[in-house]
């Protein structure tokens, strides 16, 4: 089952965006600031009204799904999530089970425990959200999404406040979720993470898709240089790539052409 957009337009923010994300795969949405990544992700989560075009989940347009079905299918982590109530971590995570309120209590309890453990929150479970660090709060919010065990995980810059170890663990978790048959769609600024961990990359620029496909073809150095306007070069072996950005002064000393 896929999650797709067909000629999606949101004012000037997205222009005729047609993409297809597949279950069992990790899809990364990349692009410079203001490219429309968060707008696209919120459309996929059915939280943003389109001016035209549509979002399709499986065989059906999203609008045919009931609110409950959508809540069960789509787990969404916004870029800067608000927490309306200052509840304990465990309570926050349990809110992820609201779409499954009629599931057996044991099933709900296990999903909550699994999510708390996945995000390394055992020792923080009784702490109010207001007394968490930025990264701990980000992990608690991610745990709430994981607790839903949705068919699709949609996360907007989920690694932004995480330390190296927790970021690596979360990327492993996303891979595991995909292997279990879920669809994973991530907005990522770190192009090396997209290159090494995604199965498919969508590159957006000024509201349009400029590349889509396996990371090696969507994030070539030419595309990175053109879209992000910096001289970049991939180093290392597949799966362990690093992106080297030339310093403008060094590049000009060496006679390289600097992009405008
Ligand atoms: N509520 C809004 N109404 C109108 N325009 C908006 C709104 N939110 C964002 N925009 C504009 O839409 C464009 C796309 O925004 P979006 O947040 O999708 O970009 P992004 O690619 O996620 O950027 P970033 O990397 O900075 O998070 C930007 O030019 C932004 O200024």
TrEMBL record:
SMART domains: AAA
Boundaries of every ABC transporter domain copy: 3-231
Molecular-function GO terms, alphabetical: ATP binding
Ion transport found in the keyword field: no
Keywords assigned: ATP-binding, Nucleotide-binding, Translocase, Transport
Function: Part of the ABC transporter complex HmuTUV involved in hemin import. Responsible for energy coupling to the transport system.
Protein's organism: Novosphingobium decolorationis
Pfam families documented for this protein: ABC_tran (PF00005)
CDD domains on file: ABC_Iron-Siderophores_B12_Hemin
Name of the protein in its database record: ABC transporter ATP-binding protein
């Amino acid at each position: 089952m896929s999650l797709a957009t067909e000629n999606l337009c949101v004012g000037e923010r997205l222009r005729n965006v047609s993409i297809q994300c597949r279950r069992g795969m990790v899809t990364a949405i990349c692009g410079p600031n203001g490219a429309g990544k968060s707008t696209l992700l919120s459309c996929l989560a059915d939280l943003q009204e389109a001016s035209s075009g549509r979002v399709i989940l499986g065989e059906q347009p999203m609008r045919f799904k009931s609110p409950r079905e959508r809540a069960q299918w789509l787990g969404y982590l916004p870029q800067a999530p608000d927490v309306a109530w200052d509840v304990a971590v465990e309570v926050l995570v349990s809110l992820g089970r609201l779409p499954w309120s009629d599931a057996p209590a044991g099933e709900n309890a296990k999903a909550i425990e699994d999510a708390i453990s996945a995000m390394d929150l055992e020792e923080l479970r009784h702490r109010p959200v207001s007394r968490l660090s930025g990264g701990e709060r980000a992990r608690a919010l991610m745990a709430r999404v994981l607790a839903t065990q949705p068919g699709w995980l949609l996360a907007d810059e989920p690694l932004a406040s995480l330390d190296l170890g927790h970021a690596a663990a979360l990327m492993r978790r996303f891979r595991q979720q995909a292997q279990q048959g879920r669809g994973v769609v991530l907005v990522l600024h770190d192009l090396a993470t997209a290159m090494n961990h995604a199965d498919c990359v969508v590159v957006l620029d000024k509201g349009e898709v400029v590349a889509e496909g396996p990371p090696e073809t969507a994030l070539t150095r030419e595309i990175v240089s053109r879209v992000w306007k910096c001289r970049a070069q991939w180093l290392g072996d597949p799966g362990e790539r690093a992106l080297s950005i030339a310093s403008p002064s060094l590049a000009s000393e060496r006679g390289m052409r600097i992009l405008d």
